[in-house]
Design brief:
Blueprint (H helix, E strand, L loop, with lengths): L2 E6 L8 H16 L4 E6 L10 H8 L7 H18 L3 E7 L7 H10 L6 E4 L2 E4 L6 E6 L12 H11 L5 E6 L6 H21 L1
Parallel strand pairs: 1-2, 1-3, 3-6, 6-7
Antiparallel strand pairs: 4-5
Helix pairs in contact: 1-6, 2-3
Length: about 200
């Protein structure tokens, strides 16, 4: 049985365009692969906190002893890592806010990037400890940004997953969504075609 980890990071929840694209992909995958399990991690509404000093100390091993709040932070991190490790396929709904990823997604990664757990430092540089698996990113942009120097989310996503050992990262974009209804519909249709191709390749 396949297990999908779905990371949703739109502040609009299920109504966000990136969320709708990702959900359509997951539903089509389930139709082709009955019995597929989906674990949903809503990074906005599930409340993955941003790092502070106490939380960083718990996750990075800076503290000799942990208080109850730090123990809870470590338990959340362990759960997030386990969700990733047990996923056969990772689906990311990724809007772009101010040329970058949502801060909620960055907070999720801050909780799973742990030395000795998901990566380790070696004399030859860092080494990822998470087995490679497909990651499909459904990215929505209000304008046309792919390939521009100011669009940092694509590079960031590829870099962070690669850092922990996951190289099979591919994007399906819908761009120009805020320009006009015609441009929006054309972009979403292009994304639908690319989604079908992504499904066929799995």
């Amino acid at each position: 049985m396949t297990r999908i980890l779905y990371l949703q990071s739109s502040i609009f929840g299920d109504q966000g365009q990136s969320s709708q694209m990702a959900t359509a992909f997951i539903e089509a995958y389930q139709a082709r692969h009955p019995g597929t399990e989906v674990v949903v991690r809503d990074l906005v509404n599930d409340g993955v906190p941003h790092l502070d000093l106490a939380r960083a100390g718990a996750l990075r091993g800076f503290a000799d002893s942990l208080d109850d709040e730090q123990k809870a932070a470590l338990a959340l991190s362990d759960a997030l890592v386990e969700e990733l490790r047990t996923a056969d396929l990772v689906v990311v709904g990724l809007p772009m806010y101010n040329f970058g990823v949502p801060t909620q997604f960055k907070a999720w990664f801050d909780h799973i990037a742990r030395a000795g757990v998901t990566f380790r430092y070696t004399a030859d540089g860092p080494e990822g400890l998470v087995a490679d698996r497909p990651v499909r990113v459904f990215a929505s942009h209000g304008g046309f940004h792919v390939g521009q120097p100011h669009e940092t989310s694509t590079t960031f996503i590829k870099a962070i997953f690669g850092f922990i050992g996951i190289e099979d990262v591919r994007f399906i974009y819908a761009e120009g969504l805020n320009i006009s209804e015609d441009v929006k519909e054309e972009a979403l249709e292009k994304a639908r075609v690319e989604t079908e191709a992504a499904l066929a390749a799995l």
